[in-house]
């Protein structure tokens, strides 16, 4: 007998878990369909109208139980707020790197390299690359290519003063033409052959001592900050200088990547075919859009997984809070529920009344949690390690999709938290409850 009860409970839990997963994955059209069907049932059927009347009675008594009901609202708001905030971090990081590239430029790396840090391109390959088909030409007929070198340096963070990695990029003059979205917003561009730096506005906010006119020591040499640029993407986190000056300062004799402008829609296909057919160039080409999108995948997956795990743990706590609160509410309203049963309210309307009441409280908690997450975290700037082991500055991005996901989590918690108390209310012995009157 005990074994059968245990198996029955296990099956019930599995059904609830499967139902919750299906609910969380349900698109908005499915949710809308369920809401419409529920509304039609409540409005057009006798049982539904009775359930709606019972729900009104329960909602009318909420002010008398506001302290207990607030436990559900606050608990679910906490779950939704944390979940949305963590997902917003992943969405912000992903959006920043995806904005960095486009399909009109390509980046060349050594064959098999996944990032600039493990790529080496010899200097004698640069003229060969410039002669390949598919690469755009400037007004003077020169290939639009920018050999680049990346050096990770340590700079004190603005918040704590502790050292953190920053990306110090050496670029050619063509880098500005290849990335027309990057513009100087303060000061001027660096001069070639001089130890001068321009810094991204994100880096300026993230690290100390990067104001225009100041001098910093990098590679045992003094460098002068002469300008600040705005990119609106991952380059905002970098420091830029002349590639030959950087190469000399750090004794780097090779390039790490070469970024090129593409000649029209067919440019990338032509360039890739030419690289495949030239045995002297063992290089891989990707559009910069593809390259930077791939850099987000691993971290985004980790953030989403952590968000779901942490959200699930908190959701379990919120479910138990809702269960306790609703069980207490059912016990406190035993006479009221028994009276409703005695005057003709059947079990299903009572179940629906308790469920709708719990879902209403869950909805309030979900809305509250989403609003708090949006107010505090949307646009909040942070930094994390990117693929080049340097800090990437980005902003949390609380999107409507994330708020909708948080709201579905809230309603799912309310569904589970109200189900068992609702069933208990429907099974409440009428005569026993009425004796207490």
UniProtKB/TrEMBL annotation:
Which segments cross the bilayer?
7-26, 32-54, 66-89, 305-330, 350-377, 402-423
Q: Which residues does the UniProt record annotate as the domain ABC3 transporter permease C-terminal?
A: 308-429
Keyword Endoplasmic reticulum on entry: no
Write down what this protein is called: ABC transporter permease
Q: Give UniProt keywords alphabetically.
A: Cell membrane, Membrane, Transmembrane, Transmembrane helix
Protein location: Cell membrane
Q: Does the keyword Transmembrane helix apply?
A: yes
Membrane topology, record value: Multi-pass membrane protein
- Where does the MacB-like periplasmic core domain start and stop, copy by copy? 71-276
InterPro entries in the record: ABC3_permease_C, MacB_PCD, Macrolide_Exporter_MacB
Q: What is its main location?
A: membrane
């Amino acid at each position: 007998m005990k074994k059968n009860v245990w198996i029955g409970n296990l099956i019930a839990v599995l059904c609830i878990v499967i139902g919750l997963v299906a609910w969380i994955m349900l698109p908005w059209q499915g949710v809308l369909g369920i809401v419409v069907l529920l509304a039609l049932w409540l409005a057009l059927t006798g049982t539904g109208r009775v359930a709606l009347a019972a729900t009104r009675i329960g909602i009318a008594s909420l002010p008398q139980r506001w302290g207990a009901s607030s436990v559900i609202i606050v608990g679910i708001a906490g779950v939704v707020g944390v979940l949305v905030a963590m997902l917003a971090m992943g969405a912000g990081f992903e959006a920043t790197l995806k904005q960095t590239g486009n399909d009109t430029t390509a980046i060349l790396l050594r064959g098999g390299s996944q990032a600039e840090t493990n790529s080496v391109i010899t200097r004698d390959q640069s003229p060969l690359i410039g002669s390949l088909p598919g690469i755009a030409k400037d007004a003077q007929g020169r290939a639009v290519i920018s050999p680049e070198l990346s050096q990770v340096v340590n700079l004190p963070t603005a918040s704590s003063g502790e050292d953190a990695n920053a990306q110090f990029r050496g670029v050619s003059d063509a880098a500005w033409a290849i990335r027309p979205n990057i513009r100087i917003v303060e000061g001027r561009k660096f001069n070639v052959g001089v130890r001068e730096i321009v810094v991204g506005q994100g880096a300026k906010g993230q690290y100390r001592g990067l104001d225009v006119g100041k001098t910093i020591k990098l590679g045992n040499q003094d460098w002068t900050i002469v300008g600040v640029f705005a990119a609106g993407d991952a380059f905002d986190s970098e420091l830029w200088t002349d590639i030959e000056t950087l190469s000399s300062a750090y004794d780097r004799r090779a390039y790490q990547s070469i970024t090129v402008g593409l000649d029209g829609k067919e440019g990338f296909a032509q360039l890739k075919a030419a690289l495949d057919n030239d045995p002297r160039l063992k290089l891989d080409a990707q559009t910069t859009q593809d390259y930077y999108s791939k850099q987000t995948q691993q971290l985004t997956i980790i953030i989403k997984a952590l968000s779901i795990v942490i959200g699930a743990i908190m959701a379990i706590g919120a479910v138990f809070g809702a269960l306790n609160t609703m069980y207490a509410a059912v016990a406190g309203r035993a006479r009221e529920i028994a009276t409703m049963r005695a005057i003709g309210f059947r079990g299903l309307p009572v179940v629906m009344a308790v469920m709708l009441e719990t879902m209403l409280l869950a909805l309030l908690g979900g809305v509250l949690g989403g609003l708090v997450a949006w107010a505090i975290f949307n646009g909040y700037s942070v930094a994390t390690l990117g693929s080049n082991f340097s800090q990437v500055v980005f902003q949390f991005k609380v999107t409507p999709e994330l708020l909708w996901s948080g709201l579905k989590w809230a309603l799912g918690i309310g569904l589970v938290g109200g189900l068992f108390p609702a069933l208990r209310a429907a099974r409440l012995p009428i005569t026993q409850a009425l004796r207490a009157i």
